[in-house]
Amino acid sequence: MVFAPHPDDDVLGCGGSIVKHRKRGRQVRVVYLTSGEAGSPGFHPDGLNRVREEEAARALRVLDVTDPVFLGLPDGGIEINALSLDAVVKLLRRERPEMIYLPHARDVHRDHLKTHELVLEACRRAAGPWHPQCGEQAWEVGWILAYEVWAPLGEVNMVEDISPFIEIKIEAMRRHKSQLEHIAYDEGIRGLNRFRGISSGRGEYCECFQVLKAGL
């Protein structure tokens, strides 16, 4: 299960790994905390949220993923409160993911930082006997991996070679047309993944992660 603060963070942070999971026959569910309604000049928020949700669905189809979840939290205003925690705990107990991806703890975007804190706290709550209103059967996530978007990870302890899937990842990113009008994310992420490949020696293009929890 991939937790993305906004549509496109999933592709940027771990799009190649998503394809890799799907090629191995694993189910992947992507959860967008917001619909990215504040993420593009020239759009009214009421219209942009629909545009970005549609772009996200098209991008996920490129990655062979369906049925995204949109939690509808405010773009630029993700908070850790009873409502947001209950929403994520319910999702974890219902879907029972073995592995989750989330932004790392030192990203420079506030929504990314809050997503990190929110999802980690929800994982803790989902594993315990508390909050029966979120589902009575507790669930403990086995693996928790932090990905990089706005700020590269300073400490990396997992490297995934995504060389066979880099063009699929870039094609998925290009489905987020509203975002590429102002920032060349497709070129930026190709450059980062190439740098990670060169610096790690693990492949031509790589995605890097920080393992926060490794198995049960």
Describe this entry's structure for a reader:
- By secondary structure, the protein is of the alpha/beta class.
- The protein has helices at 9-23, 45-62, 82-95, 110-126, 166-173, 177-180, 185-200; strands at residues 2-4, 30-34, 69-73, 99-103, 143-147, 158-161, 206-213.
- It has a single domain (2-213), classed as 3-Layer(aba) Sandwich (Rossmann fold), CATH 3.40.50.
- The chain has a four-stranded mixed β-sheet with strand order 4-5-7-6.
- Helix 4 (110-126) links the parallel strand 4 (99-103) and strand 5 (143-147).
- Helix 1 (9-23) crosses helix 5 and helix 3 crosses helix 4 (110-126).
- The longest helix is centred in the first third of the chain and has 18 residues, at 45-62.
- The two termini are 17 Å apart.
- The mean pLDDT is 96.
CATH homologous group name = LmbE-like
Head-to-tail CA distance between termini: 17 Å
Strand line-up of the largest beta sheet: 4-5-7-6
Average pLDDT score: 96
Order of helices and strands: EHEHEHEHEEHHHE
The 3D shape can be described as: globular
Number of domains: 1
Strand content: 15-25%
Report the structural category.
Answer: alpha/beta
- Look at the structure and give the CATH class: Alpha Beta
CATH topology: Rossmann fold
Low-pLDDT ranges? none
Helix content bin: 40-55%
Overall radius of gyration:
16 Å
Could you describe the largest sheet, including whether it forms a barrel?
A: 4 strands, mixed
Number of helices: 7
CATH architecture identity: 3-Layer(aba) Sandwich
Q: Count of DSSP E strands?
A: 7
